[in-house]
Write a structure and sequence with these properties.
Blueprint: E1 16-22, E2 28-34, E3 37-43, E4 46-53, H1 58-68, E5 78-84, E6 89-94, H2 101-105, E7 107-109, E8 117-119, E9 136-137, H3 138-150, H4 154-158, E10 162-168, E11 171-178, H5 181-195, E12 203-206, H6 212-221, E13 225-228, H7 234-243, E14 246-252, E15 255-260, E16 265-266
Length: 289
């Protein structure tokens, strides 16, 4: 079965709106700003969390969030996902009863923009985790970076947003954006689950910082390589080394830094053939959040 790639839709009128103001010279100016709205996620009859999101792909966001929190297992049979746009509620329904009480008892607010939340033990599921040793060619990094920088996106229209792309080789399979990098990753997780996309040969490319939360989500999704245009946190690096995740940051122009999982890298790119990054794109994915 062929799965169509999914990309941002910067022309979706629900996701941004024009706002009038003045510039530094006092002249009238109109710009597009990103919309931000609440989305309350239910698992069956249990209210789980209200997330702030831009509002696209609520079904993928809810499903991915529950999977990444360990409230849903890969083996759980999802019977339906119902979204009520007026109530701003999405309900994920399963065939069997799920026990989420222990997860809900412990809540951790993460460093994610738009205030990320992790339920239960953040490190649960990492002990004994083994990620596949799928090699990654450095030549693909530059091709993916170019593609992502030149794909129409909400960031280029409005700023104030993060992007995350699921990649295989030189191809972008899914590209999601949101005000929080954790939301964008959860959308990717939900999309993968719904479409039966395996993780073992994939790369996750993000514009946000490589924090502990980002590393944990990527590892639990089974993706062996995580790349960012932004920098690292020390705990993020520690966890990546613990689970053997290939962690690459500061991917700008010809340069990148790998602080974990170097054994997967195949250095096949002649750097003299990599063009300098265009100035207008250097700001993209700066990751200040």
């Amino acid at each position: 079965m062929t799965i169509e790639p999914i990309y941002p839709d910067p022309k979706d009128p629900r996701l941004s709106r024009g706002v009038e103001g003045v510039d530094e010279n006092g002249k009238n100016k109109s710009i597009s700003v990103i919309e931000e709205r609440p989305l309350t996620i239910y698992l069956n009859s249990q209210e789980i969390v209200t997330a702030m999101t831009i509002g696209d792909h609520p079904e993928y966001l809810a499903l991915g969030f529950l999977l990444n929190q360990g409230m849903l297992k890969e083996s759980d049979r999802v019977t339906g996902i119902d979204f009520d746009e007026e109530l701003e509620v999405v309900v994920v329904r399963t065939a069997g009863v799920t026990d989420v009480e222990s997860k809900l008892e412990k809540k951790t607010r993460t460093s994610g923009c738009a205030v990320g939340t992790v339920f239960g033990d953040m490190m649960a599921g990492l002990e004994g985790l083994s990620l596949p040793d799928t090699p990654v060619h450095t030549s693909t990094f530059y091709e993916l970076s170019y593609q992502i920088n030149h794909t129409p996106s909400l960031y280029m229209e409005t700023g104030a947003i993060h992007g995350t792309a699921l990649c295989q080789g030189r191809d972008i399979l899914a590209y999601m954006e949101d005000v929080g990098r954790h939301n964008a990753v959860d959308k990717i997780a939900g999309w993968m689950h719904q479409n039966g996309v395996p993780a073992s040969d994939k790369v996750l490319y993000t514009t946000g910082r490589l924090t502990s939360e980002m590393v944990i989500k990527t590892a639990l999704m089974g993706i062996p390589t995580l790349i960012s245009r932004s920098g690292f946190t020390a705990w993020g690096v520690d966890i990546a080394r613990q689970v053997g995740l290939t962690l690459i940051g500061r991917m700008r122009g010809k340069k990148f830094t790998c602080l974990s999982g170097q054994h997967r890298l195949v250095f096949d790119q002649d750097l003299s053939q990599v063009p300098d990054e265009e100035k207008k794109l250097r700001r993209k994915g700066a990751g200040h959040d």
